[in-house]
TrEMBL record:
<dbReference type="InterPro" id="IPR022813">
    <property type="entry name" value="SecD/SecF_arch_bac"/>
</dbReference>
<dbReference type="InterPro" id="IPR022645">
    <property type="entry name" value="SecD/SecF_bac"/>
</dbReference>
<feature type="transmembrane region" description="Helical">
    <location>
        <begin position="254"/>
        <end position="273"/>
    </location>
</feature>
<dbReference type="GO" id="GO:0005886">
    <property type="term" value="C:plasma membrane"/>
</dbReference>
<protein>
    <recommendedName>
        <fullName>Protein-export membrane protein SecF</fullName>
    </recommendedName>
</protein>
<feature type="transmembrane region" description="Helical">
    <location>
        <begin position="169"/>
        <end position="187"/>
    </location>
</feature>
<feature type="transmembrane region" description="Helical">
    <location>
        <begin position="279"/>
        <end position="302"/>
    </location>
</feature>
<feature type="transmembrane region" description="Helical">
    <location>
        <begin position="143"/>
        <end position="162"/>
    </location>
</feature>
<feature type="transmembrane region" description="Helical">
    <location>
        <begin position="193"/>
        <end position="210"/>
    </location>
</feature>
<dbReference type="GO" id="GO:0006605">
    <property type="term" value="P:protein targeting"/>
</dbReference>
<keyword id="KW-0653">Protein transport</keyword>
<keyword id="KW-1133">Transmembrane helix</keyword>
<dbReference type="InterPro" id="IPR048634">
    <property type="entry name" value="SecD_SecF_C"/>
</dbReference>
<feature type="domain" description="Protein export membrane protein SecD/SecF C-terminal">
    <location>
        <begin position="123"/>
        <end position="306"/>
    </location>
</feature>
<keyword id="KW-0813">Transport</keyword>
<keyword id="KW-0472">Membrane</keyword>
<dbReference type="Pfam" id="PF02355">
    <property type="entry name" value="SecD_SecF_C"/>
</dbReference>
Amino acid sequence: MANRLTTFGNDLYTGKRSFNFVGGRKKWYTIAGILILLSVVVPLLTGINFSIEFRGGSQFQIAQVENATAEPAIEAVHSVVPDAEVRVAIVGGTGVRVQTDQLDQADSQDVTGALAEAYDVPESEVTSSFIGPSWGADVTRQALVGLVAFLLLAGIIMALYFRTWKMSLAAILALIGDLVVTVGIYAAVGFEISPAATIGILTILSYSLYDTVVVFDKIRENTAEDGQESRRTFAESVNLAVNQTLVRSINTSVVAALPVAAILFIGAGVLGADTLRDISLALLIGILVGTWSTVFVAAPLYSQLREGEPAISRHDQKVLKERERAASVSTGAEALPTA
């Protein structure tokens, strides 16, 4: 098995075996466009499930209960405030967290007593707190400022490093697509957007950009070595670079995704740590989406942006004409009669 994988990677690197990522870019653009469109439309139709830190409200926590189910909590809250919107989460298998709209002090005390009675625990075991929406608004504003600053700085640095703004543009556009699709998946599945999830979503920026830079660096290396005498078109050189780094991209993604998945399914699922769940879930989605966009969107987009340049266009036409000439000579030689 290991030998087959090694052979497969070597074949991709030498060009003996190749996947036409750049040539199929219209198909990849269509898929990416559909995903982005759905990621924009779905939140507009269903809304985004923001956590209490963003929307504000009252929260009640019962640490240890014998019957950790949601129904008693819902009934208890509605017995005090019939029209309250109630969200119940089971924490760690034995804990219950109840979130409601903002309640006044009297209703909050009554709900505390009702929850204690519903779960047969002393009132002292029920903790209550109020969270205002202003904190979440501050986090959102700071996150947006940080996002814009990151995109600007990353774009400038990449343009200087690769000596072309087109690589920078392709990478940033793919990165923005990653963010939109990640948020869209959250909205479609109903995952809660919490401050921890926001941190996770912003963290995937660095991973996605790292994977893109690795591929782009190989593209720059290939196109710089080709020169005017190269027998490959610019698109073929870009496609070769993507194939040469494909195994590395997959390996990097798997290595990054495994510990994140462990945190998500073991740490969050078994231990009931909501913060770990929110961060790891955003990271896992972002890693998968970022790897896909690097291979299928960023590299083909960069190739398309450069193919119209006069020097590259002349080179590509020269390569194609030489191939046509070689093909016609070969066909003529085959047609000659044999003695």
